[in-house]
Write a sequence for this structure.
């Protein structure tokens, strides 16, 4: 088996489920898929714009989208308090008004707080990216991220960084693993994310695999 298959797509229907729930005719499928991507990008751009004023990072684990005939329900699973949660009602209403402008159907946005944010690969990747932007050593950033994750009770984690690490002329891949990460076991629930970060040396890619449990 190749190493390039997405662990989430590989396990759909067994231990993983879709983040988007809707039905569409074959001719409308691509349009709905693009609409999902546009919704996620609009929310991320809004959060990034707001976070320029405050400190910290997005802290969004993932977004669930459910579509009906006249309504789009978006649930944002968030790890840390930020401008969306401060002044809870006002922040959500402002976000909803900004995103609603781009879509004809009625949009409803809700926020759910995650108990163990560092057990989510997207939040962990953002943490590593923030450390690398602050010129922290990549090894130190990876080890610190693994320490934070181990406190959540996971069974294994693998972190990989690729690109011109530390400004070296030749790009390379560095990775570190703690515990078990059985990528070829379908019954093993594995969370995965791929994150891109722009530094003064160029673009770096961060990939994280987290082994949650096994059914």
């Amino acid at each position: 088996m190749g190493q390039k298959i997405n662990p989430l797509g590989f396990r759909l229907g067994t231990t993983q489920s879709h983040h988007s729930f809707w039905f569409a005719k074959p001719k409308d499928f691509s349009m709905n898929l693009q609409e999902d991507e546009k919704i996620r990008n609009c929310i991320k751009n809004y959060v990034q714009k707001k976070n320029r004023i405050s400190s910290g990072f997005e802290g969004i684990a993932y977004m669930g989208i459910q579509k009906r005939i006249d309504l789009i329900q978006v649930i944002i699973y968030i790890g840390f308090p930020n401008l969306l949660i401060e002044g809870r009602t006002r922040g959500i209403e402002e976000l909803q008004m900004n995103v609603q402008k781009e879509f004809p159907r009625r949009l409803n946005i809700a926020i759910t707080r995650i108990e163990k944010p560092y057990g989510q690969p997207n939040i962990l990747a953002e943490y590593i990216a923030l450390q690398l932007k602050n010129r922290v050593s990549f090894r130190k950033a990876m080890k610190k991220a693994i320490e934070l994750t181990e406190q959540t009770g996971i069974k294994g984690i693998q972190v990989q960084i690729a690109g011109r690490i530390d400004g070296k002329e030749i790009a390379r891949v560095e990775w570190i693993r703690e515990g078990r990460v059985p990528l070829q076991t379908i019954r093993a629930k594995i969370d995965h994310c791929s994150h891109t970060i722009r530094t003064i040396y160029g673009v770096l890619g961060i990939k994280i695999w987290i082994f949650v449990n096994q059914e």
DSSP finds five helices and eight strands in the chain.
